[in-house]
Amino acid sequence: MQNRRQRRLIDICLRRRAVREKCGVRRKKCAIRPDQITIITAELRGDTTFLERILTDDYIGIGPLGFMLTKQEWLARHQAGDLKYESFSLDEVKVRVYNDAAILTGRQVQNAAYRGNPIQGQFRITLVFVQQQGQWRLASLQLSTIGQPPNFTQS
Questions:
Q1: What is the pTM of this model?
Q2: 152 is a domain residue
Q3: Which residues 6+ apart lie within 8 Å of 90 measured at CB?
Q4: What is the CATH number of the domain that holds 77?
Q5: Structurally, how many domains does the chain consist of?
Q6: What is the dihedral of CA 143, 147, 95, 126, to 10 degrees?
Q7: Secondary structure element (H or E) that encloses residue 72, with its range
Q8: SS3 assignment, position 89
Q9: How far apart are CA 18 and CA 85, in angstroms?
Q10: Contact yes or no for 22/93 (Cβ under 8 A)
């Protein structure tokens, strides 16, 4: 049961075969219809209809500098046309399922602009999913800039 749930979450988040292979999911176990949209594709395209459905009403997104956005604020970035992606990908994905909650961690790589200001980078991403009415929905997302560990942690 847990493996099926993990595959479903990966299906929701990832579309490309290469990304699925990197996260250790075999193609025959993780078949995705070509018309099935994903969070990655929705974010890249600014598909607020899909994002509105998948985000919980109390969704909180935490950006790489610690700022927080509600569901309405997250959607508004796309509705106003303020956020434009040139590229957006997710890899190094790991999923852990705990009953009706799941944590997805990975690496997000993006080339984008917000109100004309470039926001390229690589980030560690944590997505928190919950099951509501039998559907996986995104309750929270947090991005952290990828850096090197401090010198004192290295031996």
A1: 0.75
A2: no
A3: 13, 14, 19, 40, 106, 107, 108, 109, 125
A4: 3.10.450.50
A5: 1
A6: -10
A7: helix 71-79
A8: strand
A9: 20
A10: yes
Over the stretch 118-127, which tens digit does the pLDDT of each residue have? 999 999 999 9
Look at the block and give the residue holding tokens 């999923």: 95
Q: Quote the CA–CA distance of 25 and 17 in Å, as a whole number.
A: 9
Cβ atoms within 10 Å of 125's Cβ, excluding its own: 19
Question: d(Cα 35, Cα 23) in Å, to the nearest integer?
Answer: 21
Q: What is the DSSP string of 4-57?
A: HHHHHHHHHH---HHHHHHTT--GGGS---TT---HHHHHHHT-HHHHHHHEEE
What residues does 70 pair with on adjacent strands? 60
Nearest partner of 141 among 81, 85, 67, judged by Cα? 67
In a domain, 154, yes or no: no
Among candidate residues 103, 85, 111, the one with its CA nearest the CA of residue 141: 103
The model's pLDDT over 88-114, given as tens digits with 9 standing for 90+, comes to 888 898 888 888 899 999 999 999 999
